[in-house]
Amino acid sequence: MSFDKEEMLRICNKMCENTLMQTLQIEYIDAGLDYLVAKMPVNSKVHQPIGLLHGGATVALAESVGSAASVMFIDRNLQEIRGIEISANHLKSKTDGEVFATAKIIHKGKSIHLWEIRIVDEKDNLISICKLTNMVLPVNK
Q1: Closest C-alpha to 103, from 124, 119, 79, 87
Q2: Is 36 exposed, middle or buried (0-12, 13-18, 19+ CB in 10 A)?
Q3: What pTM does this model have?
Q4: What digits encode the pLDDT tens for the residues 110-139?
Q5: Residue 84 neighbours by CB under 8 Å, 6+ apart
Q6: Is 63 a catalytic residue?
Q7: One of 7, 63, 116, 122 is an active-site residue; which one?
Q8: Are 40 and 81 a contacting pair, CB within 8 Å?
Q9: How far is 33 from 41, CA to CA, in rounded Å?
C-alpha cells in the first residue's frame, strides 16, 4: 500500500470540521509513514487566566494529532480509534505564536497503538511531551 501524504493531510483536516480541533484552529501540516504533525496558534483562545498556553489545550492538541495518526494504520470503513490514556509533562510556558505537535509511533499493534507526541514552539523549544495510547475498535454500525 502506498502512502499519499497530501491525501492523509486532507483526510485529517477534513475530520476537524465542526469539532474541538476546528475551535482550537489545529491544522495538520506534515505526515509520513510513521508520524503526523499538526500546528496550533497560541492566543487568548487557548490561554489559561494568567495568559499562558493552557495545559488542557496542549493535551487536546496532543490527543488530536496522536489519534489522527492512528487513522493512518486502520481501515476506516471497518475500524475506528479511541484514545484510552494520555499523559503529559509541560516543560515550558508559551504566551503567543504557534506550537507544533509531532506524533511518532512507538508501538503499532493490532488493537493498541502507542504514540509519543512532542510539542515544540517555532524555535524548536520543547513545550510539552506526551504519551498517548489508542485502542483500535471495530466500527459499531
Answers
A1: 119
A2: buried
A3: 0.95
A4: 999 999 999 999 999 999 999 999 999 999
A5: 133, 134, 135
A6: yes
A7: 63
A8: no
A9: 25
